[in-house]
Amino acid sequence: MDLAGYMHVENLTGNILLLKSASSPIFDRIEFHYTNVTDGVAMMRRQDEVMIPARGSITFQPGGHHLMLINARRAVREGDRIPLSFTFSDGTRLEMIADVRRVGSTSHSH
C-alpha cells in the first residue's frame, strides 16, 4: 500500500536548505514528488531533493509537492500515528510523528 504525505516546512535560517531524504520504519521508502498540470494533464515526477528558500517555506499538498510513502510494511489506517525522519542539506535531522487522516480532514497534526 502506498500513501501520500502532506505537510508545511518552514526554513527559519538565512540560507537555502535542501530536504535531502525522508524515511519511516513503516514504509520501504519515501520519495519526494511534484505534480505539474500541463494542458489539463497531471504529471507526477520524482525529485531527488526539495529546496526550501532562506527564511521561506514550502507546502506539500495535493496537486503540488508531496511525499510518496511507498510499500507499507503493515496495514495503515486513519487515526494511526506514523514516525517520520527528515534529513536536510545542513545535516539537520528532524524526527516527527504524523497523524494518518483522509485528505480534506479538518483535524490537525501534532
Description:
The protein has strands spanning 3-5, 7-10, 17-23, 27-38, 41-47, 50-52, 57-60, 65-72, 81-88, 93-99. By secondary structure, the protein is mostly beta strands. It has a single domain (3-99), classed as Immunoglobulin-like. Strand 9 and strand 10 form a beta hairpin. It is globular and about 40 Å long. Mean pLDDT is 91; it is low at 106-110.
Sheet bearing the most strands, described? 4 strands, antiparallel
Content-based structural category? mainly beta
Span between termini: 24 Å
Strand adjacency order, main sheet: 1-8-4-5
**Rg, nearest Å:** 14 Å
| Structure summary, number of beta strands | 10
CATH topology: Immunoglobulin-like
Per DSSP, what share of the residues sits in E-state strands of 2 or more residues?
A: over 45%
CATH level-1 class:
Mainly Beta
Helical percentage: under 10%
Question: Would you identify the CATH architecture?
Answer: Sandwich
Count of folded domains: 1
CATH superfamily, called what?
PCu(A)C copper chaperone
Explain briefly what this protein structure is.
The protein is mainly beta. The chain is built from no helices and ten strands.
Give the helices and strands, then pairings.
Layout: E1 3-5, E2 7-10, E3 17-23, E4 27-38, E5 41-47, E6 50-52, E7 57-60, E8 65-72, E9 81-88, E10 93-99
Antiparallel strand pairs: 1-8, 2-7, 3-6, 3-9, 4-5, 4-8, 9-10
